[in-house]
Amino acid sequence: MKLIISDELVHSAVDYLAYHGDKAAVAKGHLVRAEYHRKRIRAQLILSAPHASLGMREAWAEAHDDYAEVCKKLALCEVAVETHRNRRSKSETICEMWRTEQATVRGLRKVA
């Protein structure tokens, strides 16, 4: 019987779950800091906008190159967090599939 989940795949999944959780936490920390930084830059730009009305000040701030740059950095942080979230989910799924596969193999051995 050919197994679907290879030992190499399981080892890789377990390795990620056991040793790379700190990288996910660091990525989440970067995301939180990037969000605070984006809000701060937006507020500073609104305060320095050359317009009288709030709507125009907000529009000016959000169209500013500095705001676009912090939004770009925020997006990169979100990608890193989602990458870790997806990798963790994939690793957990691989482990669960391996457990199911092993239980099936044991069950088939009892029948045979």
Please, could you describe this protein's structure?
The chain has 112 residues and is mainly α. The protein is 88% helix and 0% strand. The protein has 4 helices and no strands. Helix 2 (21-48) crosses helix 3 (54-63) and helix 2 (21-48) runs antiparallel to helix 4 (65-111). It starts with 6 loop residues before the first helix and ends with a helix. The model has no long low-confidence stretch (mean pLDDT 95).
Q: Which short descriptors sum up this protein?
A:
112 residues; mainly alpha
Give the SSE string: HHHH
Output the radius of gyration: 24 Å
* Largest sheet composition: none
Count the beta strands.
Answer: 0
Provide the residue-averaged pLDDT: 95
Summarize the structure.
The protein has four helices and no strands. The longest helix is centred in the last third of the chain and has 47 residues. The model has no long low-confidence stretch (mean pLDDT 95).
